[in-house]
Amino acid sequence: MDQKQSKNIHIPNELQGIALRPGLEGVPVTQSAICEIDGLKGNLAYRGYPIEELASQSSFLETTYLLIWGNLPSPKQLRDFEAEIQMHRRVSFRVRDMMKCFPASGHPMDALQSSAASLGLFYSRRAIDNPQYIYDAVVRLIAKIPTMVAAFQLIRKGQDPIQPRDDLAYSANFLYMLTEREQDPLAARIFDRCLILHAEHSLNASTFSARVTASTLTDPYAVVASAVGTLAGPLHGGANEDVLTMLEEIGNPEKAGDYLDDAITNKKKIMGFGHREYRVKDPRASILEELAEELFARFGKDKMYDVATALELEAEKRLGPKGIYPNVDFYSGLVYRKLGIPRDLYTPIFAISRVAGWLAHWREQIGANRIFRPSQIYTGEQKRSWIPPEERTLPTNA
Ligand code: COA
């Protein structure tokens, strides 16, 4: 939007000539060495490593270490990190009791936001210039967030949360705490790969929110809680839930074209499509599609998969010329559904993974901090005087 388009607006001298960019599209607001996206070619790399390599070769905890500390860990560093995470998986009975007071009908993202914020009460020391404090906070958050997501799932069903199992690796343990049974190793590995894919994506809305919060030098639990709240919206992480609802509404592959025509005519967004950064298919969507197929080959196909592939094909004809293709949320729900995960947990699972990226940005932000404080162009009234209530007339647009 050009400032000159707006009438009767006083633009302060220091903002003269600066174009207003709603949604900050294309505006660099920081430097970062964490993640690189080439939205025209469909390339994504964490710390210089292509996402395809990490998703096939790495583990979520190794990728987390890479994102936060910049390099792949040595075998000892990884063993120590995994052992620390394992040791801190349990959450205090006080947090569990607090979660028992949450309404069972509440959204698990709200439960997660509250419980993540509550960790700040337990670890209130703020020593963000101390590397040990940073390490401990990373370990606690990466370790406890899955436990809190699984705990709320059982609590809202009226059950007591189950304790983490020390003999299970990160993803296998989460699936065990959530579903109360040990999953097939293939399912656990595919889930771990999903976590790698969702771990980081440069300055998306929740990561930006994390950096803004971090820039006030508050504690990392507040940073993560603010990012969880931002991730919850349907234009961001919340889209993965809506994708399945949409696929079910379409119902069968033959109806995909009509659904799209109707949505486009009525200016309705197709969930799981479009991205500010990509003009081609999101590379994570391609990998998730393969993961869904791997799962279906072992455990049987989800009939919504055919609807999804038909929708992708039809959407390419209609939206491809505008650079709108499937994003990360398009196939992730189909994977999670096959793993037996309830739909409203898809976004909390996104959060379990993205906490790695948020913490990498937290560390980077506090390492070279300047508080975020952008400008605005004031478009409101000027020079009004207070008048007594009985003399007021209602404005015509009230
Ligand atoms: N379905 C249909 N049209 C879409 C679309 C979608 N999913 N995404 C973008 N568009 C269209 C818009 O209608 C708009 O068209 P117009 O210029 O003719 O008005 C144009 O593409 C630009 O869209 P806009 O919403 O301004 O892009 P953005 O960069 O601000 O938003 C998203 C990016 C991701 C928020 C947007 O693509 C979207 O809402 N997608 C659906 C939700 C989703 O899947 N979110 C998860 C993201 S990982």
What does this protein look like?
The protein has 398 residues and is mainly α. It folds into two domains: 35-235 and 343-367, Citrate Synthase, domain 1, CATH 1.10.580; 239-338, Orthogonal Bundle (Cytochrome p450-Terp, domain 2), CATH 1.10.230.10. Helices cover 53% and strands 3% of the residues. It has helices at residues 51-57, 60-69, 75-87, 93-100, 108-122, 131-156, 170-179, 185-198, 205-214, 220-231, 239-250, 256-265, 283-299, 304-319, 329-338, 346-367, and strands at residues 35-38, 43-46, 49-50. A hairpin with a 2-residue loop joins strand 2 (43-46) and strand 3 (49-50). Coenzyme A binds next to loops.
Give the averaged pLDDT, no decimals. 94
The succession of helices and strands, N to C, reads EEEHHHHHHHHHHHHHHHH
The biggest sheet, with number of strands, parallel, antiparallel or mixed sense and barrel status, is: 3 strands, antiparallel
DSSP strand content = under 5%
**Which class do the helix and strand fractions yield?**
mainly alpha
| CATH fold topology of the largest domain | Citrate Synthase, domain 1
Q: How many DSSP-defined strands?
A: 3
Bound molecules: coenzyme A
Poorly predicted sequence stretches spanning 5 or more consecutive residues = 1-5
Total helices: the number is: 16
State the helicity in percent bands: 40-55%
What is the C-level CATH assignment of the largest domain?
Mainly Alpha
CATH architecture group name of the largest domain:
Orthogonal Bundle
In CATH terms, the superfamily of the largest domain is Citrate Synthase, domain 1
